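Q: Structure for this?
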Amino acid sequence: MLDALLDSLLDGGPLPGEDQAGLQPVADVLAALRAPASTAELTGETRALAEFRAHPQYSARAAHSPRSAARAGQPRRPGRARRGPRLRPRPAMAFAAGAAVLAGLAAGAYAGDLPGPVEKLAHTIGLITPSPTPSPSHTQRSATPDPSPDRSHVRRTRPAHPHASSSQHMAGHDRDGHQHDGQQGGQGPGPTGGHGGSASPSASATPEPSTSPAAQPSPQSSTAPATPRQHSSSSSSPP
Amino acid sequence: MRILGFVIGETFQAVLAAAQSGHEGAFSVLWRDGNPALLRYLRATAPEVAEDVAADTWVHVVRGLAGFRGDEPAWRAWLFTTARRRVIDDARYRARRPASPVAEMPLAATPLSPDTADVVLERFSTSAAIALVAELPPLQAEVILLRVLAGLDNEATARLLDRSPGAVRVAAHRGLRRLAQLLAGTGVTH
């Protein structure tokens, strides 16, 4: 019985109505230990905050985490409504101008109207196929895969898009050595043990594979990067 | 009355996350919740260096804050574990450099320990209560302080002190009984 009373005292519980054990003075001492903080016990806060601010880990995080105030229970700052595209006007204009230049270069190259140095540049960046005549820039394009139907040497983990043409269909091997074709929806085992066969190709999270950039001179080629090596770990469904 | 300990409560995880993200206000919440209890614990266990050790404890807490994972009881256990280690380190440092004889005095004989009669007259102020608990044997005093100030349960206190839960419970009960005897000896029985 006494032990239960003592445990209750330590836990901050009240004593029973009749204090037969004479523990009320002890309860008073413990209550004094639990009294609210005094001013003197809060005077070191400035120093502690200075240590906190000086620590590079928190000063850097505070600079990159403007939402930390909301996490502390403070009201969120009203968000600004989006007025349009995320891109600012100047970068968008620069992008459009660059795309127009590239398109013009490609058109001129096909028409054979480009001057020599410009044509060499077009070869280098892969806008046009190499000319029949030997050119030093021809060797720089050897890293780009040849868009031929036979791509068994290409290591892939994702099947081709079901609506892709036959030239784009790839029957390869994923990184684990599993052979699969473009019609299969499997994605291979993920980091958590697999989300494998449940996802359909149209629901795959990876972008549609594209052919050589030379076949797609339009700006839209940037939305479908050609990445022969694609990981199977990404999944359409969250873990 | 707001009881010292577990003041943060349900919002602890949000406060902790904000502090780990660099929010000073959240860190202040943690500090204001923990520092008074920390100071009281140190004033009973290392009275001559309580302020310095408390400041040093928060330096170490700041360094390890980002890596801390746990609920509020775990946070308080970590805070007091850090403080306890700073006390031990300070004691070792002073043992190698005995510059002041005060450091070798037993805990109960420090100048900050008032007479028990004074404790009665002061009607159990916080400082008087700390001084009274400091007169107990070290293990009994520390167990009571960790249970009451840090709000740790018996098992958490046992882990912190590297003792068995049974030994910690026995020490706590003996300490409380001794407190009752000390207070009864002064005629305080209400």
